[in-house]
Each structure stands twice: as structure tokens, then as C-alpha cells.
TrEMBL record:
This is Transcriptional regulator, ArsR family. GO terms for molecular function: DNA-binding transcription factor activity. Pfam families: HTH_20. Residues 1-94 form the HTH arsR-type domain. SUPFAM superfamilies: Winged helix' DNA-binding domain. CDD domains: HTH_ARSR.
Length: 112
């Protein structure tokens, strides 16, 4: 898990912004040009491109330029990092709550 921490940190930083999460959500429906994506957000294209670069540099999306059109594609495998981390955290907390439940509901020890 430790070997993924720098990558995981980058993915969480990228997903910390609501605009970038909205872009990831939109790209879940399929590849879209930067121009189409940018129209959905009330900001200038250069500001929007900063979000695209952050997502791309952290591996959440890929962009492909064809002529004057840059198309964004979601990298679903990268989201698996988050899914794996969350699954590990869920397992740890379930084990802890199970132990707590056993401690609370377990048979009482007889006192001398």
C-alpha cells in the first residue's frame, strides 16, 4: 500500500475540487472534447484547462489532440486506486467494530 501513497495522494488532491469531480463524472458517460466540457462550467477556458491538466497529470484522464480538438477520456483504472484504498479502510473498520461488538456482547468473565 505504501508504494501507492504518492499516486493516491495525487488522485485525492485532484478529486478534492468539485469542478474536477464533475469533469470525472461527466467523462464517465464517455469521451468529450475540452470545449464541450468547459461550456458546463462558469469559468474561462484557461482556468478550466488548469483543472484538465491537474486531472491529466494525476492520471485520472488522458487527452488526445486531433487537429484543433482536444478530447478527454477517463482513465477508469486510476480510480481503482481510490476504490482499493477505500476497501482496505472499510475492512479495517469492520474488523475493529466486530472486535468491539465481541467485547461488549461476549460472555462476562467470572470475577473471583
Amino acid at each position: 500500500m505504501a508504494q501507492y501513497s504518492a499516486e493516491l495522494d495525487g488522485v485525492f488532491v485532484a478529486l478534492a475540487d468539485p469542478t474536477r469531480r464533475a469533469v470525472v463524472r461527466r467523462l464517465g458517460l464517455g469521451p468529450t472534447s475540452v470545449g464541450e466540457l468547459a461550456r458546463e462550467f462558469p469559468m474561462t477556458l484557461p482556468s478550466f484547462m488548469k483543472h484538465v491538466r491537474t486531472l491529466e497529470s494525476n492520471g485520472l484522464i488522458r487527452t488526445v489532440k486531433s487537429g484543433r480538438v482536444r478530447t478527454c477520456v477517463l482513465n477508469r483504472e486510476r480510480l481503482a486506486l481510490v476504490d482499493d484504498w477505500l476497501a482496505e479502510q472499510r475492512r479495517i473498520w469492520e474488523e475493529r467494530t466486530d472486535r468491539l461488538e465481541q467485547f461488549v456482547t461476549g460472555p462476562e468473565e467470572s470475577s473471583p
